[in-house]
Write a structure and sequence with these properties.
Number of helices of chain A: 8
Largest sheet of chain A: none
Radius of gyration of chain B: 21 Å
CATH architecture of chain B: Orthogonal Bundle
Oligomer: heterodimer
Mean pLDDT of chain B: 92
Strand content of chain A: under 5%
Largest sheet of chain B: none
Number of helices of chain B: 9
CATH class of chain A: Mainly Alpha
Largest interface: A-B, 40 and 42 residues
Number of strands of chain B: 0
Distance between the termini of chain B: 54 Å
CATH superfamily of chain A: MetI-like
Order of helices and strands of chain A: HHHHHHHH
Order of helices and strands of chain B: HHHHHHHHH
CATH topology of chain B: MetI-like fold
CATH superfamily of chain B: MetI-like
Shape of chain A: flat
CATH class of chain B: Mainly Alpha
Mean pLDDT of chain A: 91
Chain lengths: 220, 214
């Protein structure tokens, strides 16, 4: 049941290159998705009705539909409109949309948690709306949002495993491939599981540490 | 998009609901002993359950289903796709529900424990009569949002061939080449399914809050 040493040595390069693709997709979708989340959060809080409805629609679809369906919608659905994407870019776009939708809620909640006096103070010293956001709201809001954003990043890292369904050669696809050629499914999948756990367990311990520290900051 | 296409997607609905409810019920029940072990006075038990929860949550759901269906099913004990998905999702739900219960338990004011000790209540009746009702009320909103999350998670069962919503959508998009509409409708179904859960949880929460409000 457990992979032998020789098997591990021969599988590891394959698995690690799959892991590196998973990590690339994670990094890119977070780098694209979190700024989108900020924009969507501001859109949901905006005064204009049109902006608010558009932002709400994007957030609700991005959160309401399973990430798997978003992926397939973009990879199998968009070619129908004449826009064909490779599996890597489709994965990044779908997961970035998912990230944007979830993080917009995290960022919105943290912006709303800032005391109202801060906004009034920013207006009264004559900051325009952009400077108010940049110097007053974001530095405070992002500190509140940080633990939740980090926790969500782990979920997106795990979510890259869904890219198996659109034929992206990431970690799960590699393990499955090894399994189907050698018929050693269990050991190959187990090895992939250990690799996932090696990243997400330390990461989640780190997140709970950050959470505790952020909490102690707020209590002072 | 014809009515027949629509019905074809709709055929996946019962399996999505069955998987969601099955895994959630199993998870909500299995989460209780897991929580008990996590809060136990015995260090080894506490440690083992913590490691177990971390491992279950640290591996993506799709990989769990593969490990159970391909890893165990193909080589050791034959298992049907539905059962494999149900077992995998129940496992994940149990770990997550245990964490939800734990969060709710931690939110109980320590005065409650002191009060029940000063009333000379035993450990069992403190837990069952004092803590459990409060934990249930606090855990309800997070459990409901987890239920919605779990429902979306069941879409991964399509990868091992369980004929639920995402699977039917996939089949239909391959036969009609109209993935855009098909997946939009599949996505819509998931959103529609989550609405009654969200509504019920809000109603139940309001009812329970009103009961304890002074």
């Amino acid at each position: 049941m457990i992979p032998t040493y020789d098997e591990l040595v021969s599988w590891l390069p394959e698995l690690l290159s799959g892991l590196s693709i998973s990590l690339q997709v994670t990094a890119l979708s977070l780098a694209l998705g979190i700024p989108c989340g900020l924009v969507l959060a501001l859109g949901v809080l905006a005064k204009g009705k049109g902006t608010r409805i558009l932002a709400l629609f994007l957030v609700e679809v991005g959160r309401g539909a399973p990430a798997l369906v978003l992926l397939q919608f973009i990879y199998f659905g968009l070619p129908g409109t004449g826009l064909t994407l490779g599996s890597f870019s489709a994965a990044v776009i779908a997961l970035a949309w998912n990230t944007g939708a979830y993080t917009s809620e995290i960022i919105r909640a943290s912006l709303q948690s800032i005391a109202h006096g801060q906004r009034e103070a920013a207006v009264s010293i004559g900051l325009n709306r952009f400077d108010e956001l940049r110097y007053v709201l974001l530095p405070q809001g992002l500190r509140v949002a940080l633990p939740a954003l980090l926790g969500f990043s782990i979920l997106i890292f795990q979510g890259t495993s869904l890219c198996f369904t659109i034929a992206l050669p990431e970690l799960v696809s590699r393990a499955y491939e090894i399994g189907s050629t050698t018929f050693r499914y269990f050991p190959a999948l187990l090895a992939a599981g250990v690799l996932y756990a090696c990243i997400s367990i330390p990461a989640s311990l780190l997140v709970s540490h950050v959470e505790k520290r952020a909490g102690s900051h707020a209590q002072r | 998009m014809t009515a027949a296409d629509f019905l074809a997607i709709l055929r996946g609905l019962p399996l999505t609901i069955a998987l969601t409810m099955g895994a959630f019920t199993a998870g909500a029940l299995l989460g209780i002993p897991l929580l008990a072990a996590r809060q136990s006075r015995l260090l080894p038990l506490r440690f083992v359950s913590m490691v177990l929860i971390q491992i279950v949550r640290g591996i993506p759901p799709i990989l769990w289903l593969f490990i159970i269906f391909f890893g165990l099913g193909m080589s050791y004990v034959p298992i049907s796709p539905f059962n494999a998905a149900l077992i995998g999702l129940s496992l994940i739900a149990a770990a997550n529900m245990a964490e939800i219960y734990r969060g709710a338990l931690a939110s109980i004011h320590f005065g409650q424990w002191e009060a029940s000790r000063s009333l000379d209540l035993g450990r069992w009746s403190t837990l069952v009569d004092i803590a459990a009702p409060q934990v249930f009320r606090v855990a309800l909103p997070s459990a409901a949002s987890y239920l919605i999350g779990l429902m979306k998670e069941t879409a991964v069962a399509s990868t091992i061939g369980v004929a639920e919503l995402a699977f039917q959508g996939n089949q239909l998009s391959q036969s009609t080449f109209r993935g855009l509409e098909v997946f939009a409708i599949v996505g819509l179904f998931y959103v529609l399914l989550s609405l009654p859960v969200a509504w019920l949880s809000r109603a139940a929460d309001a009812y329970l809050q009103a009961k304890v409000a002074r």
